[in-house]
Amino acid sequence: MPGWQSYTELLRDEFTQLREEGRDLRAIAELEEALSQMIDSEEGLEDHWSQIQAVPSFSNFKFYEPNNLNDIRRLRIDTERELKIPNDESWLYDRLYGAWLGRCIGCALGKPVEGFMESQNGISSKDRIKRYLEAISPSEYPLNYYFPIHSPAEDIVGKVDCAPSTREYIKFMETDDDIRYTVLGQMILQGTGQDFTPWDVAATWIFRLPYGFVCTAETQAYRNLVIKYDFHAGAQWLNGPQEIDCDWTSTFLNPYREWIGAQIRADSYGYAAPGKPELAAEFAWRDARLTHVKNGIYGEMFVSAMIAAAFALEDPLDIVEAGLAEIPKTSRLYSDLRKVIGICKKYNLEYNKFEEVLEEIYTLVGHYHPVHTISNAALVVAALILGRGNFERVVTLAVMGGWDTDCNGATAGSIVGVMAGASKIPKKWKDPLNDTLYSGLADYHPIAISECAKRSIAIVKKIKKGARRGR
Q1: Is the pLDDT of residue 232 over 70?
Q2: Of the residues 41, 76, 359, 398, which has the fewest C-beta atoms closer than 10 A?
């Protein structure tokens, strides 16, 4: 069963991952040299994987990044973990509909330029987007609407993809992993309720999510699930839950275990726990643990907690703080996002200073892969803080920051969508979608985006009543 990349690329990316998570640099260099001459196939890489994972941590690495939920919680800052929201179903529906719309809008906005995530011709990701827009007209930058399908600069910076999400053609939210995972999270909560486990996440994927729809860490973990567990006896599988060896599924042949894949799966867990960031973060942890470790897990917890807090808080800084309060203060993600807040404050939280802020963020976290959790979370935080609750500014800034544009647009859009509610999202952004989502998944292809919000309300009620497992 093929993985995401060839064995040579997996090996290369694994050594990068080991360096980033604080393994001994000399030991990595020695092993890298030795294995580059020994491994000539994926089977050979599998044979040596345990040896690779045994590289010791660097003794002076200043971060402590556990995977266990109890350990994570012991390393949090103190804060209020349950926030008051109105007891008004129409208010809640408007906020949940806003969340779904915001996620779809931000995703559709970023999809055409996702292919701009790498530097090209010496031009950074964010500057490729800027040049694409400015070559059309000075009025196109800063970004203020869905991307045009062509630009005079496309020979230099690249052509956009995903024509159904460009301004000339957009009529609905087209299928995308950033939306499919939100749907899958809703499916998990609908089917199992608040006591779902990684087993339920795995079962939902196997029976509802085609393998061709997954990327990076999810590809590797999906592959590991099929290898280790028997899916031929479908009824037996569905009679679970069984224990999943998440330490293995999240790490075996998986150098992408701190990339953005878990972070983009956070949303439905935040929608399920309005005003309860701690509960939202716990839901996210159960989901992320299947595929990710360390900051890959924390990214999903952070986003889910921010979404839950956005139902109760108005100040974007407070929302970011609520998210940070659910992850270890000893982690790289926490440390770098604290620095991002400092950068935004350095420029007095002024939107018109966004280019200076983005430049400093690129200097701070640009050494990570463009699909890494930390680098993209930094852009989302900057968009939220500088956007100050203005829907258009938040989603467009999240995309103008570059790197994983559809992921960041979707995540920022989800949070500011909760803050605004559907009723306050400008018609210029929501009307082109015609309240329609094509997710590519059964029962959600097509579906009204408003219907997704109604199903989210049913989940909130189910959890509030304390409903337990039941398919």
Answers
A1: no
A2: 41
